[in-house]
Design goal:
The complex is a heterodimer. Chain A is of the alpha+beta class. Chain A contains 21 helices and 29 strands. Helices cover 28% and strands 25% of the residues of chain A. In chain A, strand 21, helix 16 and strand 22 (512-516) form a beta-alpha-beta unit. Chain A is globular, with a radius of gyration of 27 Å. Chain B is built from 11 helices and 14 strands. Chain B is 32% helix and 25% strand. Classes of the chains: A alpha+beta, B alpha+beta. The A-B interface holds A 128, 131-132, 626-629, 666-667, 671, 679-680, 683-685, 687, 689-690, 692-693, 746-748, 751-752, 755 and B 1-3, 184, 186-192, 194, 260-264, 266-267, 270-271, 274. Bound molecules: flavin-adenine dinucleotide. The site of flavin-adenine dinucleotide has 32 residues of chain B, from strand 2, helix 2, helix 7 and strand 10.
Amino acid sequence: MTTPNQVLSEVEYDVIGKRPVRPDGVDKVTGRAQYGVDLELTGLLHARVLRSPHAHARIKAIDTSKAEALAGVRAIVTAADLPFAALSREDLGNDYNRFKFLSDNFLASDKALYRGHAIAAVAADNAHIAESALALIDVDYEVLEPVVDVRAAMQDGSPLLHDDLIHTSAMGEISDKPSNVASYMKFEKGETAAGFANSDVIVEREFTTASVHQGYIEPHNATAHWRADGQINVWCSTQGAFVVRANTADVLRVDVSDVRVTPMEIGGGFGGKVSFYLEPVAALLSRKAGAPVKVLMSRTEVFEGSGPAPGSWMRVKMGANSAGKITAAEIELAFEAGAYPGSPVMQGATCAFACYELENGTVSGYDVLVNKPKTAAYRAPGSPQAAFGVEQVVDELCQKLGVDPVEFRLNNAVTEGSRKVEGPVFQKIGLVECLEAARNHEHYRTPLEGPNRGRGIASGFWMNRGFHSSVNMTVNPDGTVNLIEGSVDIGGSRASIAQQAAETLGISYEDIKPQVVDTDSIGYTMVTGGSRTTFATGWAAILAAEDVKGQMVERAASIWDVPSEDVEYDSGVVRHKSQELSFTFKELARQLYTTGGGITGTASLDPTGEGNSFGVHLVDVEVDPETGKTEILRYTAIQDAGKAVHPSYVEGQIQGGAVQGIGWALNEEYYFSDNGQMMNSSFLDYRMPTSLDLPMIDTVIVEVANPGHPYGVRGVGEVPIVPPLAAVANAVGHATDQRLTNLPITPGSVLEARL
Amino acid sequence: MRAIDYVAPTSLSEAVSVLSANGDRARPLAGGTDIIVQLRGGRRELDVLVDAKTIPELNQIEMTDSGLRLGAAVPCYEIYQNQQVAAAYPGLIDAAGLIGSIQIQGRASIGGNLCNAAPSGDSIPPVITLGGEAHINGPNGWRAVAAENFCTGPGRSVLEPGEILVGIQIPAPVANSGTAYLRFIPRNEMDIAVAGVSSSVVLDASGQTIQSARIALASVGPTPILATAAGDSLAGKAASDDAIAEAGRLASEAATPITDMRGTIRQRHHLVDVLTRRTLNIAIRRARGEE
Ligand SMILES: Cc1cc2nc3c(=O)[nH]c(=O)nc-3n(C[C@H](O)[C@H](O)[C@H](O)COP(=O)(O)OP(=O)(O)OC[C@H]3O[C@@H](n4cnc5c(N)ncnc54)[C@H](O)[C@@H]3O)c2cc1C
């Protein structure tokens, strides 16, 4: 047998690549870590949100008088309390739609656009009173026909979500007819039609995927205190405190400096906590009540009122010649935006063929409004759906050509210098290395035997992100270093950033004390998301550490009274280049306060050079022919991490992504009634995989250093959710001799395909 | 959720009098894994919960020559950890061991499963095929109801206001008999049966001929269903694939499923057939002492 987790390293470091204990670990396993729900403040009120029971309805009137009369109720807000209510189209001009959509998703003004859409909120002495008060609010709805399917929403005559507000914008042109299609985009490279004409085999299929939720364990929560001096303090569960600050200030029409956001510990986000729903509502309630207000979502509210990943429809066509080279490829995607524009269809389109060297290709996408919650980011937004289609079509091409699916992918793999359909040229990337690792893996080399079994393979791509990060680093007299950062720690980033700081300073990991702080206490830092945090905030830590090193050199030079050019910093020691003079980091730290004062290193940056990520997954399944149930027998996920700063957390990201992808493939879906009601808004009926549904996910970390980062780091959190949908579908396809093109591939759908 | 009263009676008569006094505003609380979830979710409103766990008769497991007397509030884990019960009634253990999860099984009772009267209640089919009887006490004294007659609709049972299920009586297993329960769920845990089937058989001494059989179904009708024709079709037949296939077909016919988010009518009919065949095979092997 092989080791379940392999790391194929190119370079060894002292701290980077090791697996130290995470700084937040003890607090988390002992239940001491402070999450939003744990927050207690003097005079705290508790709020609940009233949500639309209808998927599509006009709000004719809201009567809160009975609720206001209930003892213990302290404040009630509706959309009428948001600044949008007092602004006219003239006031807002070109910003009208953007501002209306932003505002309406916190509290609906004229229309409820999905079941679960927030209508009103009540703050009371306790949550039970708040709940009782919700039942006393009368909302007069004119119920409208909903549309919850992307293709239906694109039809002429479909119910319109935004009456006359949305007109399809396509390649700079705006149509004159109102529509649910918010935008259309298209990219082309080469001559697609000619490419197909030169192919020996062509496969073309349509695919659909269901809306799925990120399924983070901690529901959304927010506490706000709008103080008498105008300062708004917010505590919440978010992936990006600065995003909450900016959008809260925007929707409330106050200055960003009036809002201070403290990110509490976070119980998962997976992209879904880049979006937020409660903070401005809590702030409005707080202003009315004159007290801090905490508001929590239930699990049902999370499903119905927070962003799922979009359901989609796709048509994929690919052609190859008998030499096994792809000659042309085409994909058309339609993604559900939910209630407001902004699905990740663009990302889906740009990821679709990213694993393949394409001479000729066309990608196009539609962003389509449906009566579902506004979609939110979910790990590699858009890419898993696209891969579900493309990787199955590739699999079928391999079947038709009779070639090995890994060889075919190697034969067509993108490498440094390859140009994507929409333009960008790849820097150094590790797809070939991942495919080679797959080919060499014991899993792949062991034939799969037995009836009703199938093996699937799929690859996946995510671009990763740079964006802004800031770090402050203060040297303590005991030689430890406080590392102050704005990146919320979801997957172990306190550790992976501290490791990069320790490596740079040449001191021990344990001597770095990382702390995630509020928006007043650190420079601008973008969300923990986009697989950017270990890359970008890690880089900020490296630069702050370099700043500290420079100041330590200056200080030693001044103590020794020598020119600083004669002093160097080497592996945690400051020494004179030619004389027998040196300080260890700790020795010098002890003297700082008496030799000129403390030292603080700082860095704020907005790096480019994020390395793209590729992954290749292998899965063996067995399908019970009588029940249609798929069992995952074995799973191996291979991924280029550039440099795995903390391999255990990289493995955790890979395993977590694979598991979420398996759930997406087999069981997860928003199940809607005919009138657009979600029927399965609980973890009982929204079936994410449990530990009993999965084998151990084996991993292989491939390290093709990213030339765009000092330690070669690439983001790792997103790409592992890209291949599983297609890998599982390919495996089930081989096990059953049926190609299943609609997600999820439930036992029922496998069975129905046979009965 | 509103504040409600909680009563912990120490005797059956005290429980019955509290229940009688409050009519349909009071209900017993066994493990609470159904009722508390329903109350919190706003699917049920009550004034009083009467704890069944403090009444001695409802918390005893007794094995005698005449069979098992299972207190209505005994949690699943106590049932499957009882060696005698586990050896005698593997079909009941099939169900007790799969309700919810380890945590749920620490609380959930068979009595609660029966009184909750969900069509999907996993323990109800094996209690039916094992010939279980519900022993009920109330303002008018005692009565006994066969398990297959206990549920009258989704969430409804024969219990009248003021009545409480005290225990379930299951006859002692006869020689050469075996029982099994299987359900179909898309995951391997934490799910509600798309369909469930329990089969029990009594074989002759040679182990080749089926003397009698009972088959009961879950999740394919408004109540658990005793598929009488399917069970009777096996009486006197050799324990063959053909006979089993015929019973599967008849069981499938007895099902009256609906299409909902958990499955379609067609899928459910089909699954009843599959699970009937599978449980009959297990029951036969158990009757032969092969497993
Ligand atoms: C996470 C989870 C998973 C679950 N999984 C399953 C599953 O896999 N299969 C399954 O079948 N069920 C499942 N359930 C439902 C539930 O656990 C079972 O129905 C369980 O057997 C109920 O038993 P209880 O003792 O908790 O009942 P309670 O919740 O205490 O009571 C259930 C009902 O019966 C009434 N009642 C209880 N005792 C008496 C009595 N002595 N006399 C009269 N009425 C009484 C109560 O008033 C209530 O209406 C699950 C529940 C949860 C929360």
